[in-house]
Amino acid sequence: MKNTIQKLNPIFLLNTTVFIIGTVANIYFALLAAGYMVTILCVYLIGSKIKDHVIKIGYIWVAKWLVFVAFLMLSGIYLPEVFLYSLAMFVIFNLSVNPSNPMSKKEAQL
Prior knowledge:
- The chain has helices at residues 2-25, 28-47, 53-78, 83-96, 105-108.
- It contains 5 helices and no strands.
- The radius of gyration is 15 Å and the shape is globular.
- It is mainly alpha-helical.
- Helix 1 runs antiparallel to helix 2, helix 1 (2-25) runs antiparallel to helix 4 and helix 3 runs antiparallel to helix 4 (83-96).
- The two termini are 23 Å apart.
- It has one domain (2-108).
């Protein structure tokens, strides 16, 4: 557990830095980023209700990348000056959050 926290610390700092820089560039970036994170959390909440682990991971993977594309499109259309900040933040967030992390080894051995 401690190793996972140490690995996520630099990622958290990088994501926070991108968030602050993007918000300074355009205040609406904060709303876009918060909306993205809430939507991803909803995807994970819905995914946690699925019992089959293979379907759960597949659903979460597909849904989070669809949300990624949708929010990047919103950013590109309505906030083009922070598009690169959005891209960086969303990629870092998507790659750092793994849907199989909460699974225990027992659940993985089907």
